[in-house]
Structures are given as C-alpha cells and as structure tokens.
Amino acid sequence: MSDCAAHLARLRETAPLVQHITNHVAMNLAANVLLALGASPAMVHAKEEVEEFAALTDALCINIGTLSAPWVESMQLAAKTARHVGTPWVFDPVAVGATAFRRETAARLLELKPTAIRGNASEIIALAAQGSAGRGVDSTDSVEAAEQAAIALANRTGGVVAVTGPVDFVTDGKRQAKVANGHALMPRVTALGCAQSGVVAAFLADTEDNFEATLAALVSYAIAGEIAAQRAQGPGSFAVAFLDTLYRLDGQQIDTYLRLEMSDEI
Ligand SMILES: Nc1ncnc2c1ncn2[C@@H]1O[C@H](COP(=O)(O)OP(=O)(O)OP(=O)(O)O)[C@@H](O)[C@H]1O
Ligand SMILES: Cc1ncsc1CCO
Ligand SMILES: [Mg+2]
Fold first, then answer.
1. Nearest partner of 11 among 88, 114, 65, judged by Cα
2. Which CATH number, 3.40.50.150, 3.30.499.10, 1.10.10.10, 3.40.1190.20, labels domain 3-262?
3. Best residue among 29, 137, 196, 245 to mutate for probing ligand 1, ranked by most atoms within 8 Å of CB
C-alpha cells in the first residue's frame, strides 16, 4: 500500500471531526465531500462558539470566500485557539487578490501560521504579495508561475502550501511534489476547491507528517475526479459521480491511477 493509500485508510479509521468556517457557496458541497470520504464535517462559525468548538475539533478549515465582518472575528478566534491547542488548521484564501478587505483579513490570518494553505495559482501569488489579482474566485495564472510564491509562503509560515490546478504543486519549503491527476470538469463545479481544503484539513488530523498528509489529500481528490469523469455527461452528473467515487475510493485505485512527480529537495 502506498503512503497516500495509508493516509486515506487512517482517515477512514479515525473519521476526524473537521470544523469549517467556510463560504455560503461551499458549505453543502464541502460537508458532503467530507462525509463521502469518511470524515465528519461541522460548519460552526458564530463568534460566541467558535473558540469552544475549535478546542475540541480534530482539524479546522478557514475559507474567506464570502467574507463579512463578523466572520473575520470568528476566523481569528478559531485560528488562535487551534494554534494554541495544537490543532491543524487550513487556510483557503479565496480571491485574496481581489479586494483590500480580503488582503487585510488574509494577512492577519497568516500571522496565525496555518498548518497548510491551499489555493489556486492566482491566490497563492497574491497571498505571497507577488501581485496577481486573478479574476474573482478563478485563477488567471498557471500553477508553475506560482511555485516560487508557494515556496516563499511555506518558508514564511513554516507550513505546507498547495497550489491546485491542472497539475497540483505542494511544498513545505524543503520538499516539493506535483500531482498530475484530476480532470477538466473539476473547475466546472463551484466550490470543489473549497471542499478540497476541508479534505486537506481532514488528512492533517492526527498525522506526523503534514507534507505527506497534504499530498495524500491532493492525490485522493484528483484521482477521484479522474475516475468520476469517466461516467459523467457534464458538471451536474460529474458532481454526483465525484461523491460516489470518493465514497468508494480505495488504495488499489490510488496505486493504479497515481501520476506523482516527486521533485528533488529544494
Ligand atoms: N484543468 C484541470 N485538469 C485536471 N484537474 C483539475 C483541473 N482544474 C482543477 N483540477 C482539480 O481540481 C482541484 C481543485 O481545483 P482548483 O484549483 O480549480 O480549485 P479552486 O480554483 O480553488 O476552486 P473553487 O474556487 O471553485 O473552489 C485540483 O487540485 C485538481 O485536482
Ligand atoms: C463562486 C464563489 N464566490 C465566492 S466563494 C465561491 C466559491 C468558489 O470559490
Ligand atoms: Mg478556491
């Protein structure tokens, strides 16, 4: 069994509780994706309860997709608690280059050292303050163009950074890898990237190696997308097939489909 398959098996055995403070578009899909995979999602964002919940969850995912002022406070409180108690937390900087509100919120969250950051190329370039705005929530940059930004961010935060797209790039500042799986239907379903950030959080629960766990999350996700696309007619049936495929995904499929490009140490 490959390392990726072992991480997936561990996730299913432990069924980690994953708190989400995510956007209105992603909530339902992210919860269904996590349930299909075998984790336990909870969308908990009120400032009155986020700290209490963050102290008991196995992992936390924070996503700024549909940002508003009360949520910014909740995000800060939850990330601070996660950091304090040593719970892994993932940051998804949706459309961070688009507005000053997003840039300022993201900068404050970065200070709380996310265990992992997952975004598309334009988001990672903007977050590293290298200038791209993207086009709303969609990327206008190639994953390759974001590699140096990802390495710089990983070094700055001490965490893992994943740039996702046609080929995913992941680094912890020392190691790097590329995942060449996936399917072009995946960006045609809204919030599939947001749900993927929740999946990264689920894989980060209870692991010794954050880089390997993030890599396993990206691999599982992309391979499920690739298999699901074989029986999809378009984005609608793809979304349904994707949930079914995540539910059934096994180590043998991972080993059969895996197209991993392990790069040298940086
Ligand atoms: N063109 C593509 N070909 C193959 N796989 C893709 C492609 N685009 C995306 N994917 C897959 O979808 C995953 C997440 O996609 P993406 O980077 O598009 O997220 P995103 O832009 O944050 O999405 P969203 O904001 O809609 O949630 C990738 O990790 C990859 O597995
Ligand atoms: C479409 C959209 N708008 C804000 S968040 C979101 C989900 C994809 O990022
Ligand atoms: Mg996104």
1. 88
2. 3.40.1190.20
3. 196
